[in-house]
TrEMBL record, chain A:
Coiled coil: none
PANTHER family in UniProt: ABC TRANSPORTER, ATP-BINDING PROTEIN
Keywords, sorted A to Z: ATP-binding, Nucleotide-binding, Transport
Record-annotated ABC transporter domain positions: 6-236
Lineage, top ranks: Bacteria, Bacillati, Actinomycetota, Actinomycetes, Propionibacteriales
Organism: Nocardioides abyssi
Protein name: ATP-binding cassette domain-containing protein
Record has Nucleotide-binding as a keyword: yes
Molecular function, one GO term: ATP binding
Automatic annotation (TrEMBL), chain B:
Annotated protein name in UniProt: ABC transporter permease
Keyword entries, A-Z: Membrane, Transmembrane, Transmembrane helix
Domain of life: Bacteria
Transmembrane segments: 104-125, 146-170, 190-213, 220-240, 294-312
Length: 305, 318
């Protein structure tokens, strides 16, 4: 297994429209490490789905190179496709066929025995409903069927585009557990999602894109580690602010308390104590992916304006 | 490839609209056969008695003045009744040669239209439902996917059309045998050949429609193009200054009838009988052989097919 499950270099996709050329993906360098669950974040229209569609051979890149499980694609896609499962955008099946018939058509096209269909139907909790027509399925059931289809191949790499869309809370939990389990079992999962909390809960690493460009990439800890802040409550805020600023720390106000950027809270306590300023509260402000993502994409919006 | 074709055959079998259209390929010719057999049924004794009763004044008039009816007075007593019965029933005996120019064309036409609809419905559904992208996620070699679907569509269309056409002509032949009607030498062979060429035309039409649907990615767009072509052929074809050898209907006739003749304009000098005799350019008919008709439609299918495969291999799939 190569170190990188997915790798793109200078990946670019342009669409010709009546108004000219629209760049959907702009020289994207993507590196998804093998193993674990990798989040793929970006606002609507940021090029996530287009990137996934290019990786899977559904769309042709304008330029750039791509590798899936170490193989160059689309040239060698047929060689690796049996190890890659994917759900792209909404589930797409024949509405007049039953869920089971849809899965059988896919499994037989890759020579997977019919018994595997029974197994994946059970895995995603569709037993008993698999002989209903697909058009009678709820959105959640359609999502489950799409995930079942990806599991037909017993893949090394799973690419999931908004897999919990339309699921009820219990279903979301089940699917998240399934994704976590797959990641833990050695399957690499690329999870494209707009639910940032989901990515934070499930993913070990993440890539953030905006306007088709890479904005940030790394482990979730690395992404969030850039800003460590503490909430500080003291009787004399003005004196504390002056003392901390004089020590070169960034100080702000938040919810009636001070917010200080530091990775050494002990030094803050010592500094204020030396000035006879005694703390009534010092608590870490948890950075979350949502605020990081919003800051990043807002800055990107500003830059491209 | 074999497994892909098998999957496409299963997909085809599971598509209800396609199955209904294939069923119509059996039902419509069966109805045409039933109508043909009924319309050529022998006149029964009961019918003769009934007609003779209702047409008694006409028969009496014939017997009084047989020459006015072209009947010899010596035979007036028997012939007048027969003649009036023939007029009233106006039915001809079943004849394979006559049906090749009549109901046989209807059967071939019905098969062509129904199998074109089946092919475009089959291919269009993959695009309408978006399931094409799902299929390509499992089998990304697009040319193979295209070919597997084409083999399934064309194979099923050919088998259906051959079976139905053969059954149609054998049924008519069987009915003639049962009615003790004479069959011309080679009549059955000619009819079966007519049916097989019609089946080939229907299979090619199905393949062409499949290829066009894969190119346009829409059942509605394909049917629009086919209807526009049909409209242009039937309504505008005769009024356009196009040689008969390029007319779609003449080429269909060439395929079905193992060659046909079309008319050409001849120089005005040919209308002077003294000069016209023996001059080749004064013959206003030309032969359009089977191979020309087959090339005409085969070429169209190859062109559409090539464009379809190229487009399917290169264009992004939604």
């Amino acid at each position: 297994m190569p170190d990188l499950a997915i790798q793109t270099q200078g990946l670019r996709k342009e669409f010709r429209t009546r108004r000219g050329t629209r760049v959907a993906v702009a020289d994207l360098d993507l590196a998804v490490p093998a193993g674990g669950v990798h989040g793929f974040l970006g606002p609507n229209g940021s090029g996530k789905t287009t990137t996934i569609r290019m990786l899977l051979g559904l769309a042709r890149p304008t330029s750039g190179t791509m590798r899936l499980l170490g193989e160059p694609v689309p040239e060698r896609l047929p060689a690796v496709v049996d190890r890659v499962g994917a759900v792209v955008e909404s589930p797409k099946f024949s509405p007049n066929l039953t869920g089971r018939q849809n899965l059988l058509l896919l499994s037989r096209s890759i020579g997977v025995p019919d018994t595997r269909v029974d197994a994946v139907v059970e895995t995603v909790g569709l037993s008993g409903r698999d002989r209903d027509r697909y058009k009678a399925y709820s959105l959640g059931m359609k999502q489950r069927l799409a995930i079942a289809a990806t599991l037909l191949k017993e893949p090394d790499l799973l690419i999931l585009d908004e897999p919990t869309n339309g699921l009820d809370p219990a279903g979301i939990r089940e699917i998240r557990e399934t994704i976590r389990g797959l990641g833990a079992s050695g399957v690499t999962v690329l999870l494209s999602s707009h639910i940032l909390a989901e990515v934070q809960q499930v993913c070990t690493s993440a890539t953030i894109v905006g306007h088709g460009r890479l904005l940030a990439s790394g482990t979730v800890e690395e992404l969030l580690g850039g800003s460590t802040a503490y909430r500080l409550v003291v009787p004399d805020q003005a004196a504390a602010r002056e003392a901390l600023a004089a020590a070169g720390l960034t100080v702000g106000e938040e919810d009636g308390a001070l917010r200080v950027e530091t990775d050494d809270p002990v030094a803050v306590t010592r500094l204020l104590g030396a000035r006879d300023i005694w703390l009534s509260e010092l608590s870490p402000l948890r950075a979350d992916l949502e605020s990081f993502f919003l800051d990043l994409t807002a800055a990107d919006q500003e830059a491209t304006r | 490839m074999t497994s892909l074709v098998r999957v496409e055959l299963t997909r085809l079998r599971w598509r209800r609209a396609v199955v209904l259209l294939l069923l119509a390929c059996v039902v419509v010719p069966a109805l045409i056969a039933a109508g043909t057999i009924w319309d050529t049924r022998p006149v029964s004794e009961a019918e003769i008695v009934e007609i003779q009763a209702t047409a008694a004044p006409e028969i009496a008039r014939c017997e009084r003045r047989p020459r006015q009816y072209g009947v010899s007075p010596a035979r007036a007593e028997t012939r007048c009744a027969e003649l009036v019965v023939e007029w009233q029933t106006s039915r001809q005996d079943l004849s394979l040669a006559r049906e090749r120019a009549g109901s046989g064309i209807g059967v071939a036409g019905a098969l062509v239209v129904l199998l074109m609809l089946a092919a475009t419905t089959f291919a269009g559904h993959d695009w309408n439902s978006g399931s094409m992208s799902n299929q390509l996620l499992f089998r990304p070699r697009r040319a193979r996917v295209w070919a597997a679907k084409a083999v399934a569509v064309t194979g099923v269309a050919l088998l259906t059309a051959v079976a139905v056409s053969t059954a149609y002509w054998l049924t008519l032949w069987g009915v003639m045998q049962a009615r003790d009607l004479p069959v011309a030498d080679g009549g059955l062979t000619a009819s079966l050949g007519f049916g097989l060429r019609g089946a080939g035309l229907a299979a090619a039409a199905a393949l062409g429609c499949y290829a066009l649907t894969m190119l346009l990615r829409s059942t509605v767009a394909t049917l629009g193009v086919v209807l526009a072509f049909g409209f242009a052929t039937l309504v505008l074809g005769g009024s356009l200054p196009v040689s008969g050898q390029w007319e779609p209907l003449e080429n269909i006739a060439a395929v079905l009838n193992d060659g046909t003749e079309y008319y050409v304009d001849i120089p005005p000098s040919c209308y002077d009988g003294r000069y016209a005799q023996g001059r080749a350019e004064c013959d206003d008919t030309r032969e359009l052989p089977l191979w020309r008709g087959a090339t005409y439609y085969g070429g169209a299918v190859v062109l559409v097919g090539a464009a379809s495969v190229l487009s399917f291999r290169r264009r992004d799939v939604p």
